[in-house]
């Protein structure tokens, strides 16, 4: 692939914001990325703001 094609492809790429889901832990609601909901529920990741 040529250098110009690579640069053109990179210029088109845009990051998207993660899809947030609301989970309830100890009576409090937290918004976390949807793909990490299971990890937060199992206690594998610290909750945001704690």
UniProtKB/TrEMBL annotation:
Q: Which family does it belong to?
A: Belongs to the bacterial ribosomal protein bL32 family.
- Please name the taxonomic classification of the source: Bacteria, Bacillati, Actinomycetota, Actinomycetes, Kitasatosporales
Q: What species does this protein belong to? A: Streptomyces natalensis ATCC 27448
Q: Name one GO cellular component term.
A: large ribosomal subunit
BP GO annotations: translation
Supply the alphabetized keyword list.
Answer: Ribonucleoprotein, Ribosomal protein
Name of the protein: Large ribosomal subunit protein bL32
Report the domain of life of the source organism. Answer: Bacteria
Is Ribonucleoprotein among this UniProt entry's keywords?
yes
């Amino acid at each position: 692939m040529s250098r110009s094609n690579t640069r053109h492809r990179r210029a088109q790429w845009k990051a998207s914001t993660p899809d947030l889901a609301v989970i309830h832990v100890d009576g409090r609601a937290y918004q976390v990325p949807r793909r990490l909901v299971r990890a937060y529920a199992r206690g594998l990741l610290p909750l945001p703001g704690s």
